[in-house]
């Protein structure tokens, strides 16, 4: 594994006292805040009065910064890092077709794009990623594996109509023959049936039967439910244009069910990640249908990944439809994590992270506890990716990464959401700790000029 370039701004050894404008994670927000570290492990976090001035090797003053754990990007397309933004003016199906043609196919180009995505992720304060790898040769997955970031590379599969049988066979071969050599503690190879309009129900069933983590795009656009319920609409036209339909009649058999119902009927085993879920119900459906679907997702332990900036860029919600149901999902007990989707629909070309996602959400969710947004950007994604959620908190113990972000000292908690500054690494990231491994995996790095004796 090629190690990440050292980015720690404080030593990995000794007792360090951080005195910050504030600190926040998935369960606490404090301003001001003091954090005591020993050998890169958190010993305590409290008010300055409660911590006092213990015997330490260094005191690090952060009067204009808020400290938080490393973040998790639960849904990304790193091999699209060199593309975009790509306008979606002609409709989602045309946009998707354009992305398909722009996606790199040469091995060197794929690797270069993923490395750029890793760099952008580090700039975004991300220590773990759920990446959708678009090539079966595992170039994207191998490049991400070498990076040292934690997470899962989900290998994408397509198969509908007469191609469904071939896709099922490919998934079964893949599950037994490929990918194990790339795996390590904190990094796995998973399977991604692309979406219900490009993969038939048998492909989803085959993915469920494997021993691997599984992800998919689900209920992303209104046209998706049109396709799965009636076999008509823009996605049928797209499949015809790209040769995805091989049946003589130019049609494809569909389940007749809403995409969420279709997935739940496969009885997913283990934790699935489903990206987007912008449209969980159709106009005219009783509210109880929506609640039943949410309850089903909660019972199945499925994590929904919401990508707020991508959703806005791609024109969601559509006219006449309500916004993303992330609050209702949380109320129903569904884990909701945040993702970024790909660079073709983002406004930060040098940065790829969920900090920018919570910054977009906050103005419309000022009544929500800020720690709930941090949970969506950290521990929710860690759980969905099978990582140790405690490693993405400020709880005592080893931490997968520690960030400092410039904020407004007068309003340090809200300043986190209102600013545009990128995070800087104090510690990490560390794949072994993200997996629940020992703190000794962290390699100490030289001290920084930011420290004061």
Written account of the structure:
The protein is of the alpha/beta class and about 450 residues long. The chain folds into two domains: about 15-65 and about 400-440, Urease, subunit C, domain 1; about 70-375, Metal-dependent hydrolases (TIM Barrel). It is built from 17 helices and 16 strands. It has helices spanning about 50, 90-100, 105-125, 140-145, 165-175, 200-210, 220-230, 235-240, 260-265, 285-300, 310-315, 325-330, 355-360, 370-375, 380-385, 410-420, 430-435; strands at about 15-25, 30, 35-40, 40-45, 60-70, 70-75, 125-135, 150-155, 185-195, 215-220, 270-275, 305, 335-340, 395-400, 400-405, 425. The strands form three sheets. Strands 1, 2, 3, 4, 5, 14, 15 and 16 form an eight-stranded mixed β-sheet that branches. A four-stranded parallel β-sheet has the order 6-7-8-9. A four-stranded parallel β-sheet has the order 10-11-12-13. A hairpin with a 4-residue loop joins strand 1 (about 15-25) and strand 2. Helix 3 (about 105-125) runs parallel beside helix 4 (about 140-145), helix 5 (about 165-175) packs parallel to helix 6 and helix 13 packs antiparallel against helix 14. The longest helix is centred in the first third of the chain and has 17 residues, at about 105-125.
């Amino acid at each position: 594994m090629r190690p990440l370039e050292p980015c720690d701004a404080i030593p990995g050894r000794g007792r360090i006292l951080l005195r910050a404008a504030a600190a926040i994670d998935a369960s606490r927000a404090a301003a001001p805040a003091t954090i005591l570290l020993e050998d890169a492990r958190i010993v305590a976090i409290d008010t300055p009065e409660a911590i006092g001035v213990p015997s330490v090797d260094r005191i690090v003053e952060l009067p204009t910064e808020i400290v938080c754990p490393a973040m998790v990007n639960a849904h990304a397309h790193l091999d699209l890092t060199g593309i975009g933004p790509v306008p979606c003016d002609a409709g989602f199906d045309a946009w998707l077709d354009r992305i398909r043609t722009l996606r790199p196919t040469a091995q060197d180009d794929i690797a270069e794009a993923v490395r750029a995505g890793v760099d952008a992720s580090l700039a975004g304060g991300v220590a773990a990623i759920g990446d959708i790898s678009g090539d079966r040769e595992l170039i994207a997955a191998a490049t991400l594996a070498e990076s040292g970031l934690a997470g899962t590379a989900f290998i994408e599969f397509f198969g509908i109509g007469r191609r469904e049988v071939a896709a099922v066979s490919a998934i079964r071969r893949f599950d037994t023959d490929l990918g194990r050599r790339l795996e390590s503690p904190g990094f796995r190879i998973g399977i991604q049936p692309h979406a219900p309009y490009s993969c038939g129900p048998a492909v989803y069933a085959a993915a469920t039967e494997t021993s691997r983590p599984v992800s998919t795009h689900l209920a992303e656009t209104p046209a998706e439910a049109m396709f799965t319920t009636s076999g008509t609409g823009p996605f049928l036209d797209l499949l015809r244009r790209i040769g995805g339909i091989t049946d003589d009649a130019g049609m494809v058999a569909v389940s007749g069910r809403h995409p969420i119902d279709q997935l739940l009927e496969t009885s997913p085993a283990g934790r699935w990640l489903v990206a987007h879920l912008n449209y969980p119900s159709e106009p005219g459906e009783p509210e109880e249908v929506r609640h039943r679907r949410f309850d089903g997702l909660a019972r199945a332990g499925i994590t929904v990944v919401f990508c707020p900036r991508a959703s806005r860029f791609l024109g969601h919600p559509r006219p006449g439809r309500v916004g993303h149901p992330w609050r209702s999902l949380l109320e129903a007990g569904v884990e909701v994590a945040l993702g970024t989707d790909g660079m073709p629909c983002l406004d930060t070309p040098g940065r790829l992270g969920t900090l920018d996602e919570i910054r977009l959400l906050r103005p419309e969710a000022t009544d929500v506890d800020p720690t709930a947004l941090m949970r969506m950007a950290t521990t929710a994604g860690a759980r969905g990716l099978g990582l140790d959620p405690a490693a993405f908190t400020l709880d005592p113990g080893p931490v997968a990464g520690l960030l400092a972000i410039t904020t407004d000292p007068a309003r340090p908690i809200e300043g986190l959401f209102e600013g545009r500054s990128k995070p800087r690494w104090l510690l990490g990231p560390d794949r072994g700790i993200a997996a629940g491994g020992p703190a000794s995996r962290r390699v100490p790095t030289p001290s920084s000029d930011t420290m004061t004796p």
